[in-house]
């Protein structure tokens, strides 16, 4: 809980910081708070589609809550974005998770 409070304090200074929002979303997942984590990931990706790390975590969250079709869409969007920014490592992770889900 202490980490969450620290991140929230930092977000007060810069509420649109994708890195901090992503970190907070990961903390929420650790606590089992998928609802708030999802909102943060979606906010990040709406504002900054090139923030590729959030696609994987959002899609995994969607898989976990049974939203397979939405997870597939997020993996696909993430793979498109990783190609645009040239992040081959992230592309590979997304593709691997995507293929595990669809096959």
**How many angstroms separate the termini?**
38 Å
**Major beta-sheet overview:** none
Coarse structural class: mainly alpha
Order of helices and strands: HHHHHH
The radius of gyration over CA amounts to: 14 Å
In percent, how much strand structure appears in the residues? under 5%
Please provide a written account of the structure:
It is a single chain. By secondary structure, the chain is mostly helical. The chain has a single domain (2-102), classed as Alpha Horseshoe (Serine Threonine Protein Phosphatase 5, Tetratricopeptide repeat). 83% of the residues lie in helices and 0% in strands. It has helices at 2-13, 18-31, 34-47, 53-64, 68-85, 88-102. The model has no long low-confidence stretch (mean pLDDT 97).
Keywords:
single chain, about 100 residues, mainly alpha, Serine Threonine Protein Phosphatase 5, Tetratricopeptide repeat, 6 helices, globular
List the helices and strands and how they pair.
Blueprint: H1 2-13, H2 18-31, H3 34-47, H4 53-64, H5 68-85, H6 88-102
Concise summary:
With 103 residues, the chain is mainly alpha-helical.
């Amino acid at each position: 809980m202490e980490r969450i409070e620290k991140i929230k304090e930092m977000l007060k200074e810069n509420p649109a910081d994708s890195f901090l929002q992503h970190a907070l979303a990961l903390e929420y997942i650790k606590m089992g708070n998928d609802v708030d984590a999802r909102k943060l990931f979606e906010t990040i990706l709406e504002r900054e589609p090139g923030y590729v790390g959030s696609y994987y975590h959002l899609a995994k969250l969607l898989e976990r809550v049974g939203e397979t079709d939405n997870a597939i869409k997020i993996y696909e969007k993430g793979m498109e974005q990783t190609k645009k920014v040239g992040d081959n490592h992230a592309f590979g992770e997304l593709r691997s998770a995507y293929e595990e889900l669809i096959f």
